[in-house]
Amino acid sequence: MEQNLSLYRIFFEVAQTGNISRAAKNLYISQPAISKAISRLEDNLRLPLFIRNSRGVQLTDEGVILFEHVRDAFGTLSHGEDELKRMVELGVGHIRIGVSTVLCKYVLLPCLKEFIARYPHVKFTIHNQSTLQTLELLEKQQIDLGLTAEPTHKKNITFDKVMDIADGFLATPAYLTNMRLRGGGAQSDIFKNGTILMLEKGNVTRTYIEDYLREQHLEPSHLLEVSTMDLLVDFARIGLGAGCVIKNFVQEELENGTFVEIPMSPPIPDRTIGFVYNSQSAHSKALAMFIRFYRHFYHPTAST
Length: 304
Known about the structure:
Layout: H1 5-17, H2 20-27, H3 31-45, E1 50-53, E2 56-59, H4 61-90, E3 93-99, H5 101-118, E4 122-128, H6 131-139, E5 145-149, E6 157-165, E7 167-171, H7 173-181, H8 187-193, E8 195-199, H9 204-215, E9 222-226, H10 229-237, E10 242-246, H11 251-255, E11 260-261, E12 271-278, H12 285-298
Parallel strand pairs: 3-4, 3-5, 8-9, 8-10
Antiparallel strand pairs: 1-2, 5-12, 6-12, 7-10, 7-11
Helix pairs in contact: 1-2, 1-3, 1-4, 2-3
């Protein structure tokens, strides 16, 4: 748009009132300033916009056409301002989160349930993907927040710890009984003679466990790769093998005897998971609200 927006604002007010003095009063500027602005706009457009008479001013045919477009434009701007005010008043916003399937189900969803109950006007987009993909999207600023294992490199990233998680190899009592009948019940026998269920390659959990097994000189002879943690648990539950799972999320099955943990020596070190966000990016009001909320949700006794 080549013309100054203020000229169109003055034109719009004069056209609505049909009177320069009334327009000047409404806009809190002088009548000569109004007349000068209209003349400038007419000179720039090389068209007469008003016909002056004793009763005030009247739009020319060209002025009527311009007025219809200016009216629509200012109506759109007014609507935009109203929408922004509504967003502030209602806490409306959009938050994009990257998270793996298992962390989404067991860690994020309980928090989201309570947050949405309190702030129902906030919109969420959940990108269901691996930790590595989440960190890539965060670096490109295509998401606002990620729920991941603690990243090794934290340049320009803030990490908010949520909890520690413990990995372990679990199997049904019947499966372990069958293993002992085959003549092997020791840790090394499980990996030599049994079926080990693990997540597919490329997964952060899979990489972490592989590093641990390599350090202990353990290599599964028969490996069954599964795409999701839930499916891995289901396969272990029917006695297909010993599954490497996050024990935090199967505590009930461990307590009621559905699963038995295979002792590992030394134990698999715990990992830390939490929210990550770009510390260099400005936070929307909705994102700032969610950050405060989840900090209290996961650590209610900690000061914020």
